[in-house]
Structure formats: structure tokens, C-alpha cells
Amino acid sequence: MPDFPSRSIHLLPLLSCIALSGAFAADPQMDEIVIEVDGLPGGADEILIEDTTGQTPAVDEIVIDAGPADAPDEIVIDTGPAEASPAASAAVADTAQPAANDWPVTLRIEDVRAEYGAFTDADSEADSALYGKIEVSANWRANPQWELQLAARADAHDQHGDNDFSTLGADYGESYVRLHGERTRLTLGTQTVIWGRLDELPLADRVSTADLTRGVLDDLADRRRANPVLRAETLVGGGKLDLVWLVDFRAAELPDKDSVWYPINGTTGRILGIDPDDLPPAAVQGARIDARAPGGDGGFGMRFTRTHSFADIGMTLANTRQSTPYFRAAGPGRFEAVYPRSWAYGLDAAIDAAGATWRVEALYSSDNPVTRSDLSYTTTPAVAWGGGVEFHPGDGDTRVNLQLMGMQLIDAPRILDREEIYNVNGEIDIPFDRQRWRASLDFYVGLDQKDIYLNPEIAFLGAEPHEFYLAAHYFDGDDQTLSGFHEDHSSINLGWRAKF
């Protein structure tokens, strides 16, 4: 599901992922659970889940004792930290001391892909685009306390048409040193930290760095880059406290200025989120664009999550720079990127009821960049909210996720940006043929203005770990919307992706 904020709420990116709710929090007085089952090897009829440390809320693993001596007597299940990034969670999959003969370094190809896209609109500035990516990591876990990971990635883009360009770039991935304690985990390095509750568009996503090089074509995790942070995760008050300091501000990764995904279209003279009737194309065509990011740190954030009997609750407090640039007029024929700091206060919750998972999230932010009608720049407060439901019809494999979201600026002056945004969005996944194939549809539909994005996809999964897919990306909308800005950039994409 892609990002669909207007320029007036780049500081409130309606972005996202499914937030993992809360830390492992079993009863601290209970040190084992016995599950009675039939048919275990050797005739055993019990599985014993032990807390091997005596401090259940802090343990990183659960030991299932299968009993008989002539069969494997333990299965170790790592619970992992809640709300860790996908790569970080995978990196700490084993908390046990490796055996003397085991190789302590784990090498992975985290992501490799190749994709060809053909633009279907005759008015598009490009006819086709090629994309390739490889991301690799090496993780060293010599003992249960210390962990070291190094990761790197390379991305290649090649666009053909009226606007041609080719780029090949290298970047760091999640590279860090990490200390594991009984109740606390400290990490220093580059990481991808995504907070929030709503699926693919979490409002509490305040500390990550956006990747805009492919616009909205990818899922949330692929629309984020690692950034330098100091992070402390600890179990406290029956839940998990996550503290993050953005040691060095990293702005969003932008595409080439000739890319169809750049937020300023020099060919048509349009700026994302601004009606061309309010800002004549001639004022944008050929303009000089300064996208330099400021130096210094990017701010800090904290998030507390706890699992209660009635719901999973999350609270977020952050003072950070937005990573996505907002382009303001800086004189005739010149536009300058700004990355304002903002305070954000958020609450969210998830509850399982009536055979579905229900999620709600709300966030207030203090300084959202906007452009007055006289082209001067200012900021204004805003509130954003959303609610959703995820369910499996008939308790089958099909997954349906539906969300309703909105944003309103507070006491905004007369501006060129949108003051309100309302939309419904979601995803439908349908696996079939013994889950060797998957049909899916991502969608976003604006309610206050016409703003339609549709992403149907068919993928072949039967050659694991390889995945082959055919997808379409359709955009249509009013001038101020993202889909209106990209209405000439609908495409059909054929690709391959894998992880090893």
C-alpha cells in the first residue's frame, strides 16, 4: 500500500505497516506451562513450556520440552522484540550460544529483484523503466549478549522515453552493534524503525526515512531506508518502551529529477499537491530545485506498547524532522526543500473481536508545512486519524484489510495545499492452488476529492524462494491529489524477487 499524503501533510505520512503490539508479557509468577496432547514421539502426552530464566517477561525464548530421550527433547522458539524492524527481527532469531563447531556468521541475501515496467499512457514522460536491487547482510552472534550486523544494498534504475536517465547507487543497510540484556536491548547503528498501528499507513511512523525512488509502487518496508539511530528497547510497566534518537538526520531518498516519480515535474510544470491553476506551469518549468537537507540530528521519539486483556495499546511521543521534503518557493524560478521539526503525540489500539482484528490510531502534530496563497511558507498544526478491520472471510486463507482515514489542518490560513483529506484504503490477498499462486489488490480511494489508485497483482509462489509477478498500477484523480499528479504514469510491471 503506497503513501498518499498531500504536500500539506508530508510531516504526517499516512504510511505504513502492521505494528506488532506490545512486548512478551506472561505472568511473572508462572515459570512453566504444561500442554496435554496426543501422538507425540515416544508416547509422550505433554509439552512443557518452561521459563528457563525465572523472569518470564524478559526472556527471549520459550523452551518446549518434548519429553522422551529417544527424540529431540527441546524446541526453542524465539519470541523476539515487539515492533522491531523486519530485518532486525530476523537478525536476532537465535538467542542461544552457538555450538563450538557452528559458524557464528550468518550471511543472507535479504532482497534481490528485477522488474520491467511499461507506461500505458501516451502522455507519459517515459515509455518504460527497468529496476534492479540486491541487498545483502552478514550477522555475527558470537554469544547471547553481543550482536554485530553489516548490510549493504545496490539499486539500479533505467528510464526510457522523453525523459531518459540511468543510475546505479550503493547504500548501507541495517548495520549495527547490539547489546542484549535480560530486560533491555541497546542498538547503535543504521536501522529501519517503523512505528504505528494501521496497516501500511501507520500514523505513528515518525522516525523512519522514506524511500521515494520508486514512488508508491512498493510495500511499506521497501519504501524505507535505514538511518543512523541510537535505540533502547526495554520491558517496563508490563509493556515495552522503545526510545530512539536520530543521531544524524537522513532525508528521504529521492529519485532522479527526470524520473516520473520526482515530486516536481519539470516537463508539465506541476508540483505534487498544488493545483496548476494556483501555480502556473511556466513558473515551475525550468526552475532550479534545491533539495539539500540540513545537518545535525533528526530528533528523538519514544513509544510505549502494552498488551491488556481487552486490547493492545500504544502511545507515541516524538520531536523529529520529516524526512520527505516540502518544496517552498524561494524566489523567481527557484524552489527549496524544507524539513521542519514537529512535535507528535499519538494513541493507538488493536483488539480481536467478532472474528476480526480492529485497529484505531490518532495523532496530533504541531508543524505541518504549507504554502500561503501569496506563495509564502508557513507551518500549521494538524490531526490525523484512522480505523480499520482485518479479517479472513469464512476463516479461509483470503485476507481482507479495510481502513478509513482522515486528516485536518487546524486554523490554517489561506493556503494552496489541501486542508482536509479523507480516504478509504486496503488490501485483499487471495492465495489459491495450494498457495502456489496469490492474487491481490491494493487500493486507495479519496472521499473528499477524486483520488484513485489500484494495484492488482498475480504472483507465482511455487518456486520458493523465488516469486514471479505481474502487476498493474493505475492512477486517476483531481489535480491536487497524488493520483492526479501521476495520472499519466499508470503502468504494467513484470518482475521477479527472492530472498535467500
Q: What does this protein look like?
A:
2% of the residues lie in helices and 51% in strands. Residues 5-101 have low confidence and may be disordered. The chain starts with 31 loop residues before the first strand and ends with a strand. It has two helices and 30 strands. The protein has an 18-stranded antiparallel β-barrel. A four-stranded antiparallel sheet has the order 1-2-3-4, with no helix packed on it. The protein has helices at residues 86-91, 482-485; strands spanning 32-36, 46-50, 61-65, 74-78, 105-119, 126-140, 146-161, 165-172, 175-180, 184-191, 209-210, 224-225, 227-236, 239-246, 264-265, 270-271, 288-290, 299-307, 312-321, 326-329, 334-338, 341-353, 356-371, 377-391, 399-409, 420-432, 437-446, 451-463, 466-477, 491-498. It is an all-beta fold and 500 residues long. The protein is globular. A hairpin with a 4-residue loop joins strand 26 (420-432) and strand 27 (437-446).
Uncertain runs: 5-101
Percent strand equals over 45%
Distance between the termini: 24 Å
User: Helical segment tally?
Assistant: 2
Give the integer mean of the pLDDT values: 85
Question: What is the radius of gyration computed over CA atoms, rounded to a whole number of angstroms?
Answer: 24 Å
Overall form: globular
What's the gist of this structure?
This protein is an all-beta fold and 500 residues long.
Any key phrases for this structure?
single chain; 500 residues; 4-stranded antiparallel β-sheet; globular
List the helices and strands and how they pair.
Blueprint: E1 32-36, E2 46-50, E3 61-65, E4 74-78, H1 86-91, E5 105-119, E6 126-140, E7 146-161, E8 165-172, E9 175-180, E10 184-191, E11 209-210, E12 224-225, E13 227-236, E14 239-246, E15 264-265, E16 270-271, E17 288-290, E18 299-307, E19 312-321, E20 326-329, E21 334-338, E22 341-353, E23 356-371, E24 377-391, E25 399-409, E26 420-432, E27 437-446, E28 451-463, E29 466-477, H2 482-485, E30 491-498
Parallel strand pairs: 17-21
Antiparallel strand pairs: 1-2, 2-3, 3-4, 5-6, 5-30, 6-7, 7-8, 7-9, 9-10, 10-13, 11-12, 13-14, 14-18, 15-16, 18-19, 19-22, 20-21, 22-23, 23-24, 24-25, 25-26, 26-27, 27-28, 28-29, 29-30
